[in-house]
Each structure stands twice: as structure tokens, then as C-alpha cells.
Design a protein that fits this description.
Strand 2 and strand 3 form a beta hairpin. The chain has helices spanning about 5-10, 20-35, 75-85, 110-120, 125-130, and strands at about 40-45, 50-60, 65-70, 85-90, 95-100, 140-145. The protein has a 6-stranded antiparallel beta barrel. By secondary structure, the protein is of the alpha+beta class. About 35% of the residues lie in helices and about 30% in strands.
Length: about 150
């Protein structure tokens, strides 16, 4: 038959743990305003091209900056993968940037550093425990800031 096998479905399944509504809406806005570790990330949508904004924690590690998706294949990570560019807002500063995805085999030390730095933030440790495979945590190196 011409149908897809169940094995194909497993390979292409999106792994994503959607945060509760309050965490996504109220918590994310409050975090960006009051938590100095949190930035606002804007990325153009992969379908519409319209910009979408979420709260993220930027990992600084070995002199480089990274964006990790603790919840798995989030919309922002799929959009950033598609466009390779975004905008960060932090403490009144706005920065346009480009990014490249870190291969899954190189993510574990970054995930460990992320957990060390942000473990106390709500849901971070629990989300990584629920999705333990580094391959399911899109990770991006911020490669350049555009002037």
C-alpha cells in the first residue's frame, strides 16, 4: 500500500510539552518584566511571516549565547529553524540576530549548563525530566548580532 508505516509516524512526530495557559500567557509576560534572566524572543512565523513573541532564557556558555527549547519542538523553535533569524529584547535593548541549530549530538553539555543556570525557574527541571532526549530540545547558537 501507499500509506505511511507506523515507523514513519514515530520519526516525524512532534515532541512538545505545551505549558499550562497561565504559564504561557500571564507567567511569560510577568517573567520578562520582572525576572532579569528572561528575554523576549520574536521570530517570524514559518507560514505567515508574521512575528511571534515569547519569553525565553538565553544561555551564556563558554563565551557564546544559545537558545534552548525545554518544552521540545515549540512554535518558536520551528519558526527559528525555518527563518534562521530573530529578535531579542532584554532590559530595554533590542537586538536582531541570526542563529544556527546545534546538532543533537552536541546538545547535552548545553542542556546541563542550562539546567545549572535556570533550574529554579518554574517548570524547567520538570520539563527536561518529561522530555529526556537531547534530540527533542531544539538548541540554537546565536551566531551574529545585526547592527
Amino acid at each position: 500500500g501507499g500509506g505511511r508505516s507506523s515507523q514513519d509516524a514515530v520519526v516525524t512526530q512532534r515532541i512538545y510539552r505545551k505549558p499550562p495557559w497561565a504559564a504561557r500567557t500571564i507567567g511569560a509576560r510577568m517573567a520578562a518584566r520582572y525576572n532579569p534572566l528572561v528575554s523576549r524572543l520574536s521570530v517570524p512565523g514559518r507560514v505567515t511571516g508574521r512575528w511571534h513573541t515569547v519569553s525565553v532564557a538565553v544561555l551564556e556558555h563558554d563565551g557564546k549565547r544559545y537558545l534552548l527549547a525545554p518544552a521540545g519542538d515549540t512554535d518558536w523553535s520551528l519558526n527559528l529553524r525555518a527563518s534562521g533569524r530573530g529578535r531579542l529584547q532584554h532590559k530595554g535593548q533590542v537586538e536582531d540576530f541570526t542563529a544556527i541549530e546545534v546538532p543533537a549530538a552536541e546538545r547535552l553539555p548545553l542542556i546541563d549548563a542550562y539546567l545549572d543556570r535556570f533550574r529554579k525557574m518554574p517548570t524547567v527541571a520538570r520539563t527536561f525530566r518529561a522530555i529526556p532526549d537531547p534530540a527533542h530540545h531544539p538548541t540554537f547558537l546565536i551566531t551574529s548580532a545585526e547592527p
